[in-house]
Structure formats: structure tokens, C-alpha cells
Amino acid sequence: MEGKRGFLWVLAALVVLLMVGPAGAKNFQFCGKPMNLYGYATQSMGYSLKGENFDTEKDLQSAYWTLLFEGDWQPDNDLKFYGQFLLNGDWIYDLKHDDRSWNNKEFPGSRDRLSIDDKYWQILKEFHATWTPGQFLFRVGKQIAAWGEMDGFRIMDQINPADQRRGFSDVEWETTVIPIWLVRADYYVPITSEAIQDMAFEFIFNPNADWIANQDILPGNDLTGIWAPNVEIPLGPGAIAHLGSIHTNIDHPDSFNDDGFEYAIRMKGVFWDNIITLNYFYGLDNSPAQVNVGPPDVSITPGGDMVLHLNQAGYYPRFRFVGATFSRDLSSLRADFLGGISPVLRLEGFYAFDNTFATNLDRFVECDEIRWGIGVDWKIRVPWINPTQGIAIWPQFYHRNIQDVPGEGFASGAESDNYQWTLLMNTSYMNAKLTPSFFILRDIRSRSHFMKLEVEYKPTNNWQYAIGALLVDGSEETTGLNVFDNKDYLYFKVSYRWG
To answer: How far apart are CA 290 and CA 152, in angstroms?
Structure first.
């Protein structure tokens, strides 16, 4: 393991040396055909805004870094190869390794999971070949199938798993969606008319070459580090225990086993100026259903805190849905006094059959469910805020309805109806060099939210700086975002991009 980590640090240094060279894409000739290379490096530092707590660290608590390297090569007009490589990690495990508070809370136990992403599928992000003969497109390799219309809410995007180990931290989009090995085939129907401007059919097959599940936020400082949820379990007058990492036995299909095969079909097109898709998915849920299978284990941290570790077993259940997406410009709402830009309406939703849930009585039940969301993208002009640039406004609403919820309720805390909304606003000054933004997500059912405020400065096409704050608040203990109530932090980030 130490040899592998040493190799990764050397590789990271080499990538940095490449990236601080002359700005712009690196263009080469390979076998007489053009090859383009791109990339970026980021480094951020996070400082806690809360005092000393069991589930987080005061003062400096994170030092996330990312190195991304990508390129494409096109030997023929109809054939293109693309690859993307990523190194991602957190210096905090080296900076805090002698810190008593850090060690007393068992944060060092999460080092293997979070200090550096060294698994092959984390380093090799995308790697695929695309062939486009005539009206067809064939893509084979490690790739992302992006089906959704919403931002942040993954409604239709159920094919690829997601990496959420680092919580709501200021990480790059490329680090949160996990590409997997897929076979994709598209057929573009050669038909155009006043009603149908474009139409195509897409088929995706997942041969389950590797079983890669959602990398979720999980209990336990020794597993999830500073983003471990804070769940306190009362033991009696003045006595509590903390919920720690869970001992699990989760079944999943072996590689290339047909139990793990997944199939997805999508019809997509432009009809009467509306972008519409019809979607079908048959596969497995990327997160397991699991129940308790015995009494919890108890451990004591070096700091003297009692921690309970649940024992659970489960599996990745079947997941099937039919759905649709819709988007169009709302030209009737275009107003000259607001800048003359039409808002864009986005809708998506699906109906899922017999999804599996774990109940509070440690049994599995199957329930149908509906997930849907609506969003609007609008850029308006408000001269007294910004006389030269518009203000982008993106409100969204999300609803999840689970049918026939059993009386004992779900272990996850989900209820029959679950509602959330988000709002993102930003604008720019100094010829788009300075960009302030504001984001809020509100969980209506649990009366909790988190807000992110950021100012980004981009003096050149290559260098970029950002400073921001993330604030979390919840009113109901152990429910919703309340378990992250101690995670408020400030961050500073510097990025260098080339290409």
C-alpha cells in the first residue's frame, strides 16, 4: 500500500509540472492524427466555524486537492478515443497525524478511504471509444450516461453511481459521478418536419464488469472522517453514545454475472420545439437495502467516548422505472425590461416499481414510488444590482412520493411524501472575472437546510480563486440535515486549468 501511495505522489508531482507550463491545450500528433490534452489542478483549505465537537475538527479540517488529466485522439472522422484520469485526496491526514484531538475522535481510521483515491476505477475515470457511422453512434468503455434535466437532484440519472464521501464539500463535479463500463448504441432517425425536428433512440447495456456502488456518507468518524453524521444515542441520565461505523455484510453480484446486468432505453427528440425524452431502466439500485441482524457492538475512542456499531446485512435490490423529461424555452415570458431573455423550463420524473426498503422493524418491504422535479433557468437584468450583466436564477422543486408505507416506518426516515427545493443565483462583474453566487437547499419535511455562499475570481483563463462558506442548520434532531449541524465551514480554493 505504501509503495502504491508513493507512486501516486510522484505521478501527482509530474502532472503539476506539466500543468504549470505554457497556457492552452497541449496539441500533439500521434500516428499522424491530432491528439489534444487538457487538465486542471485544484487545492482548497477548509476551516470549521463551529467549536470543538465529536463529529468534526476545530480550525483547519480539510485540505482537498484534485489533479485531472484528460485527452482525446481522433484517428478518423467517425472514430474518437477519450480518456480522463483523476487523482484526488486530502492532505489533512498528514497535517493532523500528530494532533491529539484528531486522534481521540478516531478520524485517522478514515485515512484509507479518504486521504487519497487510489483504486483503479477512481484514477481511471472515463475511457471509451466512440464510432459514428452514418445515423449510428456506438460508444464502448468507461463512461457516464447523463439522462437528467435537474441540477443536484439525481432523478433520472440512476445508471452511474455517485461519490458523496466528502459530503457537501467544495469538490469538482468530476469527482462526484462515477463512470462505469457500459455499451451504448444510438440511432438517429433521418426524419425532419415541422413537428419533429430531431429524434433518436438510445440503448445502454451494463455488463457489470466491476461492481461499483454509491459511495455514500456513512456513520462513523473512523469511516467518513469530518463528514460523519452526528447521531447521539441516549443511554440514561447524562449518558450518551455516538453512532459509529456499521459492520455490514452486503451481497452483490460478481463481475459479469447476469444478476448484475442492467438495461436502459431512451427515446429523445425535439417535438414542436420541445425537448422530450421517454426513459426505461431495468437494473439494480446503487445503494443497498440493509437491516439489523443482531445487537450492536460497543467501542471506546481514545478520547473516552462510547461508540455503538450496528451489525447489518443486506443486498442491492432490483430497480425498475419508466420516466420522461421535458424542457423548452418559455418565450411568452420574455420581457424586455428584464433583459429580453426567455426562461427555460425543465421537468423530469419517473415511476418505479416494487422498490425495496428496510423498515424500523428490520424487515424488507416493496413499495412503488414516484420521483419528480421541476426547475427554471432564467437570466434577468437588474440594473441597480448589476448594470452590465444579468443575474442568473435557477429555482428547483423536488418531490418523492412512496406508496403504501408500512406503519412501522422506514429505517432511512423517509416518509410517504418528501419535499425539497433549491435556489441558485449568480452574476458577474469586471468582465466576468468576479462571480459571486448563492445556493440554498431546503428540506421541507425535516425543516433543515444548507446554504453555500461563494465569490470566485478569475484573473486569467487559467488561474481561478474562490472563497466561500457552507452553513447547515436543522431543527429536528437526528433527522434530515440536522445530523450535519456541526459542519459549518469556510473554504479557500485555488485552481489552475489548461486546455
So the answer is: 25
